[in-house]
Write a structure and sequence with these properties.
Blueprint: E1 11-13, E2 16-18, H1 21-35, E3 40-43, H2 50-59, E4 68-72, H3 78-86, H4 103-106, E5 111-115, H5 122-134, E6 136-137, E7 146-147, E8 151-156, H6 160-165, H7 171-177, E9 180-183, H8 193-208, E10 215-216, H9 218-226, H10 232-246, E11 251-252, H11 259-263, H12 269-273, H13 285-298, H14 303-310, H15 314-323
Helix pairs in contact: 1-2, 8-10, 13-14, 14-15
The protein binds adenosine-5'-triphosphate and magnesium ion (MG).
Adenosine-5'-triphosphate (ATP) binds at residues 15-18, 44, 46-52, 157, 197, 233-234, 237.
Length: 327
């Protein structure tokens, strides 16, 4: 831990770098909470480091030698989520050809990380609450409760209170999960961190080889500083990787940055959600064709890499190439 937690010095805590006082406070809370068995709820926008914080909580806890298991409550349909959480017995449903322990049992003796917990369907919330109260699970299709011993860490990008007010989340479960709430501030609210993380990520990229970036031009720094980073640290890392591959030479320049960063306007959710090309492919077909051609050239013809450079999926790239007559 940092000697001068409020001095603005850079510190690293379990892979998380910061200069910012609020983040340093988060590290101290994580350290303290780790010593206890209390349920921790991590709240923060996407890419702020919730998963890293959850792993730190586990590693610093007396359960560190036990397993760490994570499950994303938003990624699975309700029935699948139930059997992933609590397990199922053979024959419980079509396709259940063997017993499945579920994460509560496989995390026993360790930590279970419930990611995007606000998205859990209400009927599962009731079952989860019972598991937490009785410290036993009944697998889907089973009868006998099985003892489990897990420490719960959960994460959410939205406030649970709002979900409770909207009738989408049980208040009693919220209180159980949120014994120690920890809020991770957004990157744009962390003075000094964009510059610090930019340097860290460039060091990492340099170590991987390829290009050697020795400086970031003042204009590029200003653009990085001004951009609101809706995807937080993850988006910053991706933007630097993009710049690293798109540019040449020892200086990272504004032209190397992803268009949305250079222009200062983040892509909207709709654009992210859509399979169609994101905003960074230019508006006019000829410039879009240039971008795609350029990416393919830099990727030496590898469509997978070209797609990554453009921040789109392979399928989208293929569709765009076809539409632009490039295939
Ligand atoms: N302070 C930090 N220093 C260095 N890397 C960081 C920091 N915070 C986050 N990262 C990196 O940013 C990425 C996103 O972090 P993480 O997965 O923990 O975010 P998250 O809050 O769980 O995001 P999501 O809500 O989208 O799941 C990871 O690659 C992580 O290593
Ligand atoms: Mg996460």
């Amino acid at each position: 831990m940092p000697r001068n937690p409020d001095s603005g010095d850079p510190v690293v805590f379990h892979g998380m770098w910061t200069r910012c006082t609020a983040m340093k406070r988060v590290f101290r809370l994580v350290e303290r909470a780790a010593r206890s068995e209390a349920a921790v709820l991590l709240r923060g926008e996407t890419g702020t480091g919730k998963e890293l914080a959850a792993i730190a909580l586990h590693r610093l806890s007396p359960r560190a030698s036990g397993p760490f298991r994570a499950i994303n409550c938003a990624a699975l349909p309700a029935t699948l989520l139930e059997s992933e959480l609590f397990g199922h017995v053979r024959g419980a449903f079509t396709g259940a050809v063997r017993d499945h322990p579920g994460v509560f049992r496989s995390a026993s003796g360790g930590t279970l990380f419930l990611d995007e917990v606000a998205e859990m369907p209400l009927d599962l919330q009731a079952k989860l609450l019972r598991v937490l109260e009785t410290r036993t699970v009944v697998p889907v299709g089973g009868r006998d409760p099985i003892r489990v011993d897990v420490r719960i860490v959960s994460a959410t990008h939205t406030g649970l209170r709002a979900a409770v007010a909207a009738g989408r989340f049980r208040a009693d479960l919220m209180y159980r999960l949120r014994v120690v709430p920890i809020f991770l501030p957004a990157l744009r609210e962390r003075p000094g961190d964009v510059a610090l993380l930019t340097d860290r990520f460039i060091e990492e990229l340099n170590a991987r080889g390829g290009r050697r970036v020795r400086r970031v031009s003042p204009h590029a720094r200003r653009l990085l500083d001004r951009y609101p980073w809706p995807g937080n640290v993850r988006e910053l890392r991706n933007a630097l990787e993009y710049a690293y591959v798109m540019g040449d030479g020892e200086t990272l320049r504004p032209d190397d940055l992803p268009p949305e960063v250079a222009v200062g306007t983040p892509e909207t959710e709709e654009i992210h959600a859509e399979p169609a090309p994101p905003g960074q492919l230019g508006a006019s077909p000829s410039s879009e064709a240039d971008l795609v051609r350029d990416a393919l050239r830099r990727a030496q013809g590898s469509r997978g890499l070209a797609a990554r450079l453009l921040g789109i999926s392979r399928v989208t790239l293929w569709r765009r190439m076809r539409a632009l007559g490039l295939s």
